[in-house]
Design a protein that fits this description.
With 393 residues, the chain is an alpha/beta fold. Helices cover 35% and strands 16% of the residues. Strands 4-10-9-8-7-5-6 form a seven-stranded mixed beta sheet, sandwiched between helices. The longest helix is centred in the C-terminal third of the chain and has 20 residues. The radius of gyration is 21 Å and the shape is globular. The chain starts with 18 loop residues before the first strand and ends with a helix.
C-alpha cells in the first residue's frame, strides 16, 4: 500500500479495507474484520446501511450542490429533523466536527463582543478534544496536538473535567468569561465521565445561568444515538445554548452541525458565518436519512442493551484483575490497570483476532461499535477481546 504522494499526517496501520457491511470490514482478499471502532464513532448505523446508501445514490443522481446563495429543500428538512431531535431552535450545517466547534467558538466571541468585552474567555476542560482548526485546537487539551501551532491560549481557561468547584473558582477569579464548552463524555481523553455522571452538565448550566454565559456542549462523538439518547445531554435535565455534532450525523458522509437556542438565538445573521459545502443537498439528505432511521427504530435502545452486554461480559470475566468499564450506550471504555503497557493491543487485536479497536488515554480500550450491532456480533467482540486480554493476566 503506497502513500508516496500523501502528507505523513497519520500513523497509518498496515492494512486497507475495500468494502464494509454492517459491523464488518473486508480487505481486498475478502478477509473479514469485526469493526468495533466504526471510523471512530462515525458509522453508527454500520457500514453501507441500505437506507443511507439509497439516499446517497438517489441524491447524487439528482442534485449534489448548488450553493447557500439559494434555498435548499433538503437542508430545511434536515434542519427541522435535527433541531426536533436536539430540542434546539436553529442549525448551521458545516462539514466536520472541528468546523461545528469553530462556529460555536466564533459565536461565543460574538456574544461577548455584543456585551462590550474586548477579549472574553471560554472555560474548557482538561483532557478535552474539540478539533484541529486553530481555534478548536486552542480549546483542546492534548499537548501533542497543540505543539508548534502557537495556539490562542489567552482565549481559554482550563479546569479539571467534572470539577464544578473549579468552575466556580474561575468565575470568582475572572470577570471576562463568556461561555463554557464541554464534552458530556471525553472520548479522546479516555472515555472520561464526571463522578456524578450527567448531573455535571446541570451544574455547569446553573453556573452559566448565574453568570449569563453561553452553555456550549460538544457532542461530535457522543451525539446521534451513540450513548442511547439522541444526544448525551438528554440523559440529564440540562439544556445547552449551543450544541455541536458531526461523526455519526452522516454515517460516514462528511457533515457537521452547530445548533442554537436560548442566549445564542439570533447571534449569527447574514454574513456572520458561512461554508461553501455546508449543508449541500446531498449532505442534507444524508442527515435526514440517518435521522429517519434513528427516530423510527429501536436502534438507540439496542445500543444501550448491547453496550451493557459487552461491558458486563468483559468486567465479569476480568474484574478480578482490576479491569473496569466506563462510558454509556455504545461508547465503551474498558479501563485496564494503569501499570499495563497497552500500546501493542491495537496491532494484536487486528492481526491476531481480526478485531478493530482503539486505545485512548494510555490504558483505556475504546470501543465504538455500530449502534445496531447484533447479539451474535456483540458476542464475537467479547470473545475476541477476551482472547486478546486474558493471556495478559
Amino acid at each position: 500500500m503506497s502513500a508516496t504522494y500523501l502528507m505523513p499526517t497519520y500513523a497509518r496501520q498496515p492494512i486497507s479495507f475495500t468494502r464494509g457491511s454492517g459491523s464488518w470490514l473486508y480487505t481486498q482478499d475478502d478477509t473479514p474484520y469485526l469493526d468495533a471502532l466504526t471510523g471512530i464513532a462515525v458509522c453508527g448505523l454500520g457500514h453501507c446501511h441500505p437506507q443511507v446508501t439509497e439516499a446517497i445514490q438517489q441524491q447524487a443522481a439528482t442534485l449534489v450542490h448548488t450553493s447557500n446563495l439559494f434555498g435548499i429543500d433538503w437542508q430545511e428538512r434536515a434542519g427541522e429533523a435535527l433541531c426536533t431531535a436536539a430540542q434546539m431552535d436553529s442549525v448551521f450545517f458545516a462539514n466536520s466536527g472541528a468546523e461545528a466547534n469553530e462556529a460555536a467558538l466564533k459565536m461565543a466571541r460574538l456574544y461577548a463582543y455584543n456585551q462590550g468585552f474586548k477579549q472574553a474567555k471560554v472555560i474548557v476542560m482538561e483532557q478535552s478534544f474539540h478539533g484541529r482548526t486553530l481555534l478548536s485546537l486552542s480549546a483542546t487539551a492534548n499537548p501533542k496536538a497543540r505543539e508548534g501551532f502557537f495556539t490562542l491560549d489567552d482565549d481559554f481557561i482550563r479546569v479539571p473535567f467534572g470539577d464544578i468547584e473549579a468552575v466556580k473558582k474561575a468565575a470568582i477569579e475572572h470577570d471576562d468569561i463568556c461561555a463554557i464548552l464541554v464534552e458530556p463524555i471525553q472520548g479522546e481523553g479516555g472515555l472520561n465521565t464526571a463522578a456524578n455522571g450527567f448531573t455535571y452538565l446541570e451544574q455547569l448550566q446553573a453556573e452559566c445561568d448565574t453568570h449569563n454565559w453561553l452553555f456550549m456542549i460538544d457532542e461530535v462523538q457522543t451525539g446521534n444515538g451513540r450513548t442511547g439518547k439522541y444526544f448525551a445531554y438528554q440523559h440529564s435535565n440540562a439544556r445547552p445554548d449551543v450544541l455541536t455534532t458531526a461523526k455519526g450525523l452522516g454515517n460516514g458522509f462528511p457533515v457537521g452541525a452547530c445548533m442554537v437556542r436560548g442566549r445564542a438565538n439570533g447571534l449569527f445573521g447574514a454574513g456572520s458565518h458561512g461554508s461553501t459545502y455546508g449543508g449541500t443537498p446531498l449532505a442534507s439528505r444524508v442527515v435526514h436519512s440517518v435521522y429517519n432511521v434513528l427516530a423510527n427504530s429501536d436502534i438507540m435502545d439496542n445500543a444501550v442493551t448491547e453496550g451493557q452486554f459487552i461491558r458486563d461480559s468483559i468486567t465479569d470475566a476480568l474484574g478480578q484483575y482490576e479491569v473496569s468499564s466506563r462510558g454509556a450506550g455504545m461508547m465503551i471504555g474498558l479501563v485496564l490497570p494503569a501499570t499495563m503497557d497497552c500500546s501493542q493491543l491495537v496491532d494484536e487485536a487486528r492481526d491476531e483476532q481480526k478485531l478493530i479497536i482503539n486505545v485512548t488515554g494510555s490504558h483505556v480500550i475504546r470501543l465504538l461499535p455500530p449502534l445496531n450491532i447484533s447479539r451474535n456480533d456483540s458476542e464475537q467482540v467479547v470473545e475476541r477481546l477476551l482472547n486478546l486480554l486474558q493471556p495478559l493476566f
